[in-house]
Each structure stands twice: as C-alpha cells, then as structure tokens.
Write a structure and sequence with these properties.
mainly alpha; 3 strands; transmembrane helix; membrane
C-alpha cells in the first residue's frame, strides 16, 4: 500500500502540496529507536559478564557460528538502520518542503517498499541478535566449564553403585 500522495494546490508559479495526516514519520522514528535498542541489548547480552564471571572476547568468538551470526547481525542491523533512516527522512522532507516551483509536481511520498523492506530487515536483525545471544550462552558455558576447578558432581569416572540394601559398593 502506497502512502497517499499529497493534494497539489496550484498557485501563481508554485504548487503547494497538502498531505493527509498519517503516522508514517512517527512510526519510522519509533522503528529506528526500537532497532537501535535491539542492537544495543544484543551487544550487552553477548558481552555482559555471565554469573559475575567475564569471558574474554577471544574465547567467545572461537565459536565459528557465533562469529558468523554476529557479523550478519551487525550488517543486517546497519542496513535496516540506513533504510529506515532514509525512508523516514525522505518522508519528512516531502512533508516539510511542500512548496514546488515545478508545476507538474505530483506531491510524492516516500516509497512504501522501502519502509517495508527496512521493517523486514529490522525484524531479521532482532532475530539474528537472539540467535547470537543463544550461541554466546553456549560459548560461555563451554569456557566456564573448562575453567572450573571445583566440580560438585565428583571426579570424572567416579561412579557409585548401590546394592539392593542401599550401601555403596
């Protein structure tokens, strides 16, 4: 669905575009804020200390899948941010610069496909950040299990079997 074109009002040597009221600029701005928050929270979720123990970045990114998904999340977030910003600014400029000296102006608005594509990329970015968080949890668990000196489950290979009467063998 294309946002409605403005209504051209012809004057002497100018065309003034009157646009109907719609929330496109507000929604675009809110989408930008939500995307920035999702990317920020994604970074915090990956790099914040786990159970009070920090994990070096090198240990986190030894996981190839985490490295790949992290780069994809960064790229998709940046592309979604650029597209959202572009569409929102373009729509804002169309609405504020509404006096044109070209008498054939049709009072354009920003392209809906640009907003839709940017919204889809923003959703993808949030999902990639979620996958990165899960992969970071796995990488942290692997790193912290290797560094654990004390294990409350006993030594490796130490197995107790019980007799029928309940005594350890």
């Amino acid at each position: 669905m294309q946002p409605p074109y403005g209504t051209p009002i012809k004057g002497k040597d100018v065309v003034i575009c009157k646009f109907p009221s719609d929330p496109t600029i507000a929604m675009g701005s809110l989408s930008i804020v939500a995307l920035v928050l999702a990317a920020f929270i994604g970074h915090v979720a990956i790099f914040y200390p786990y159970k009070g123990k920090s994990v070096p970045r090198g240990a986190l990114f030894q996981s190839t899948s985490l490295s790949v998904f992290f780069v994809i999340a960064e790229l998709v977030s940046a592309l979604a941010f650029a597209m959202l910003l572009w569409a929102t600014i373009t729509e804002g400029r169309h609405r504020t610069s509404n006096i044109h000296h070209d008498m054939d102006t049709l009072c354009p608005t920003a392209k809906t496909g640009l907003f839709g594509g940017a919204a889809f990329l923003a959703l993808d970015a949030a999902l990639f950040w979620l996958v990165c968080q899960m992969l970071a949890l796995n990488a942290r668990a692997d790193y912290l299990d290797e560094d654990e000196d004390e294990d409350d489950k006993g030594e490796y290979g130490q197995v107790y079997a019980t007799d029928a009467d309940g005594t350890k063998v």
